[in-house]
Amino acid sequence: MNSYILQTKDLCKDFKKQPAVNNISLSIMENSIYGLLGPNGAGKSTTLKMITGMLHPTSGKIIFEGHPWSRKDLTDIGALIEAPPLYENLTAMENLKVRTLLLGLPDGRMDQVLKIVDLTNTGKKCAGQFSMGMKQRLGIAMALLNHPKLLILDEPTNGLDPIGIQDLRGLIRSFPEQGITVILSSHILSEVELIADHIGIISNGILGYEAKINPGEDLESLFMQVVANSKKAGD
Asked: What's the structural domain count of the chain?
């Protein structure tokens, strides 16, 4: 029987009394890939930052594995929000070493995550010399260090070339088989369509649609309709 690893209930976030996220209720199936779609500024990153504890909700609830979310749950959550938090003067291994020391993890985990993201042969090359795709993969490796049950990726294909996007797509698709649920935010419909099992569409801080992706569905028309409806609601 499928179960939800994460749910939000009427989640809200206001900035100076202006709503950025307005009563969003998400349901994320365990061992799936959930695509969180929306235009730039729709509230995707704000929602993900609340789930990862970077922002406090104004109101609403976050439920993780059937219980109210607490900071202790961050031991089971990995995240890459915005740019990878890299020290550009350090190698891939050295960047991971900093994180393992902070988390109190064994050194052996560094080799494991480098293998997962295919960065085992970077040697003494500093992260500042990496391509954008390599930096993204190193950021994901850092997010995987703590064996997360839930991995949150915010616009992970931004700035990547087609080969980098294809490599990252294959990597992300492999995670549910490893027992890792993925929430992937994006404004690129074609990418989400190729990766995700379920989607939610946010516009103007409102969740206008949530469902399983159906083969052959016209995702672009659906997206535009949800965005148009949210604009009408806001007028």
From this structure: 1
CATH number at residue 209: 3.40.50.300
Instruction: Find, among 144, 149, 116, 112, the residue nearest to 31 by Cα.
Output: 149
Return d(Cα 187, Cα 182) in angstroms, integer.
Answer: 16
CB-CB contact of 171 with 163 (8 Å): no
Range of the domain at 156: 4-234
Query: Rounded to the nearest 10 degrees, what angle do helices 132-144 and 92-103 cross at?
Result: 20
Q: Tell me: the pLDDT tens digits for 116-161? A: 998 988 989 999 999 988 999 999 999 999 999 999 999 888 878 8
Long-range Cβ pairs for the range 167-174 (8 Å, 24+): 167/118, 167/133, 167/137, 168/133, 168/136, 168/137, 169/194, 169/195, 171/116, 171/117, 171/118, 171/137, 171/140, 172/33, 173/33
Q: Average pLDDT in the 28-38 region?
A: 95
And the tokens for 194?
Answer: 């190729």
Q: Indicate if the pLDDT at residue 230 is higher than 60.
A: yes
Q: What is the pTM of this model?
A: 0.92
